[in-house]
Amino acid sequence: WQAPEDVLYEDIRYHRAEGIARITINRPEVRNAFRPETIIELLDAFHRAHLDPEVGVVILTGQGELAFCSGGDQRVRGDGGYRDAAGTEHLNVLELQRRIRSLPKPVVAMVAGYAIGGGHVLHLVCDLSIAADNARFGQTGPKVGSFDAGYGAGLMARTVGLKKAKEIWFLCRQYDAQEALAMGLVNTVVPLAELEATTVDWCRRMLQLSPTALRCLKAAFNADADGLAGIQELAGNATGLFYQTEEAQEGRNAFLEKRPPDFSTYRRRP
Ligand code: 2NE
């Protein structure tokens, strides 16, 4: 048993219990739209979940039943990005997308209500998406003068196929949960009343599994789409595992003991 941990933020909530970190966008009055400060808090929360050895799985969700996230807060959109309180314009949600991808633990989007615009891309970059039957998905960029030509386009195409991805972006339609399931945009659809229980059940199942295997698999799934940064994630796991071998430790020990390394006992495996 671990003590629950709650961390105080303004725009989001962070709660950890039973190895699960739950990160909730808490701006229901704007359908959980994000402003730059929301993203700064989310970056911090995901970093916290990354570093916490007690956390094995992360849930990203929105407060309430009406929305997961409706994307960038249009009220603070300036001419070159989203304005923070000091007037600086940001597109820092892109950094958050990368952080979710590079977090070496599964991230599950728990979606009730709208996942729209930049909020839709946020669920897309999560490893798994569990949708309530009231969930609605879509991009609005071309309607509101915006687009996401990074993961929003490329990962979308890898997820639902090129034709469907173009339809999503070119028509700016909304799709219900069953349509999203049919196109492979979400993993499952459950009644709204069962959303939380199902999500926690899926998380508990993953917590039973090898964390190293899940970590390496996540990096493997991301590697090609993420280019050298993706290969770096995957390769970093190999380095971390190699460091745990006597062979690697012989190199370190020899340096510290100021002697030549002796790798002669380590066999070349086929
Ligand atoms: C999300 C959606 C479909 C919900 O519709 P509905 O009918 O359920 O609610 P309603 O009345 O539209 O919204 C409730 C309140 O939330 C605000 C609304 O203005 C409204 O406020 P009041 O009238 O009550 O004062 N609200 C909702 N979304 C907001 C937003 N994103 N920013 C600020 N206020 C918002 C419907 O609300 C909708 O379509 N929302 C807009 C979705 C959208 O276009 N998002 C931006 C896409 S661009 C983006 O996210 C992006 C990007 O493309 C690239 C980089 C970074 C960001």
TrEMBL record:
It comes from the Bacteria. Pathway: Quinol/quinone metabolism; menaquinone biosynthesis; Quinol/quinone metabolism; 1,4-dihydroxy-2-naphthoate biosynthesis; 1,4-dihydroxy-2-naphthoate from chorismate: step 6/7. CDD domains: crotonase-like. Keywords: Lyase, Menaquinone biosynthesis. The record marks 82, 243 as: Important for catalysis. It comes from Thiohalocapsa halophila. Substrate binds at residues 31, 70-74, 82, 114-118, 140, 146, 243, 258. Its EC number is 4.1.3.36. It is an enzyme of class 4 (lyase). This is 1,4-dihydroxy-2-naphthoyl-CoA synthase.
